Protein: Serine protease
Organism: Mycobacteroides salmoniphilum
Amino acid sequence: MGLSVPHSLDLVFTVVLVVASLLGWRLGTLGSIMSFVGLGLGAVSGTLLAPHLVGTISGTNTRFLASLTLIAALAVVGQVAGIVLGQTWRSRVQHRSTRLKDSAIGLLLHVAVVLIAVWTLLTPASDADHSRLAVALRESPLLSQVNKWAPPVLKEVPGDVARLLNHADTAEAAQPSPNADVPVLPPDPDLRFSAAVPKSEPSVVKINAVAHQCLKSLEGSGFVVAPQRVMSNAHVVAGTDRVTVESSGRTLEATVISYDPEMDLSILDVPGLTAPPLPLTDKPGKTGDNAIILGYPGGGNYAATPARIREIFAHNGPDIYESKSVTRQMYSLRGTVRQGNSGGPLIDATGRVLGIVFGAAKNGTETGYALTANEIRNQITSTAASQPADTGSCTTSGH
């Protein structure tokens, strides 16, 4: 009877550990340390480079596995460089007893570090729900034991690796109007200093979410629309199983209670949130009007970005899953919409909400998009909900 896939994987891991122990014995203490330094530098380089080099690969799991492969390859290159340097010192150790002790310590170091490295890289991959490899990794007795005995501080590392490689908020949309680049004057830079900007800050929150089903960490913005209720885009929380919001220096757990992928809107229940709701405007903006985009671009600090309305129009286009066509009323804006702005409010100079930002033009023009206050108002009744809503699957389109 053949070995199961999980046990076959454990056999491979065991062979890797045997090779690591032999290498550690040969290199000794300093040689092993040098190889680990090289391995670490290579892994860090791979982690930083992966999002930029594999971003064009289609398929979430394929992209993630390509990232892990790149990290592993650079880690091996770094380790080999460290080994070459470490062997120079090892050759100088001549006394037999000293050499034996040095070899024993090197063996233990190598086995421990290789175990941690394998666990750190493969644990995030085991969270991919639909992969045969992921199922096998989850059922691996060896990885389960490492996970069981790993110190709490190390247990955070695999999740951090997954978040680094799969960080997403898409402030990008298909060009929804042939007239989206209606010429208007540049935004007024002085709008950044409007009194409405600091006044609105407590009610504009940063949203962080984790979608384990597709190994993604998502970020965006949101704003208070009712007591302990925050509105954002649906694509900011798509497929997530944990959501937090940051407001006035506090991080609060949130629950998605309304999820509308057709309108690209969501509402979060945030117990403990004391910030007041932002008022909605009764008067829609028109071409040439000033506006301010509020939110957390790049996942950074609260920021106000001046904008100017190009036009207001009804657009018939795809929902966030590109599965059906829906009609939404929206603004096209002259202004810069960045990653992290999605879900933030578009306000006028008095602080009233004109709309909710959801994306930017793909063609690189200085054009962003926001749903109007009327679309927001149509969703307000959902703030009365109290039960968690199904956040569906992760998005794979331009949203």
Observations:
- Residues 5-169 form one domain.
